[in-house]
Specification:
This protein has 4 helices and 4 strands. By secondary structure, the protein is an alpha+beta fold. It has one domain (2-109): Alpha-Beta Complex (Aspartate Aminotransferase, domain 1), CATH 3.90.1150.10. The chain has a 4-stranded antiparallel β-sheet with strand order 1-2-4-3, with helices on one face. It is globular. This is Cysteine desulfurase. It comes from Mycobacterium tuberculosis. GO terms for molecular function: cysteine desulfurase activity; lyase activity.
Length: 113
């Protein structure tokens, strides 16, 4: 199980690093690996999460978009919706790279890059 945990943590760290390097992308939750779980929720300034999700889906990257059963929290922080990527033992570093590239594509497509 230690190897599984280490693999997932590497993927999450890579996703946070990659997404944090994109102007206008905000990671929700801690950006350090301390007390961090697998899901990485984020918003892209000026692009609705459903649009980000569609661009990612078109590129073969699966994320969840919406309120994630946390509508009161979204309202409290003024968020229309968020995108959320989750990582598990079967995910790869290449998939993280595709996620980051897809988010960059969404910013460009919607005129935010």
């Amino acid at each position: 199980m230690a190897a599984v945990e280490a693999h997932e943590r590497e993927l999450v760290a890579a996703a946070i690093e990659g997404l944090s390097g994109i102007d206008g992308v905000r990671i929700l939750g801690p950006t350090s690996m301390r007390d961090r779980g697998s899901p990485v929720a984020f918003v892209v300034e000026g692009v609705h999460a459903h649009d980000v999700g569609q661009v990612l889906d078109d590129g073969g990257v699966a994320v969840r978009v919406g309120h994630h059963c946390a509508l009161p929290l979204h309202r409290r922080f003024g968020l229309a919706a968020t995108a959320r990527a989750s990582f598990a033992v079967y995910n790869t570093a290449d998939e993280v790279d595709r996620l980051v590239a897809g988010v960059r594509r969404s910013r460009h497509f919607f005129g935010r890059a």
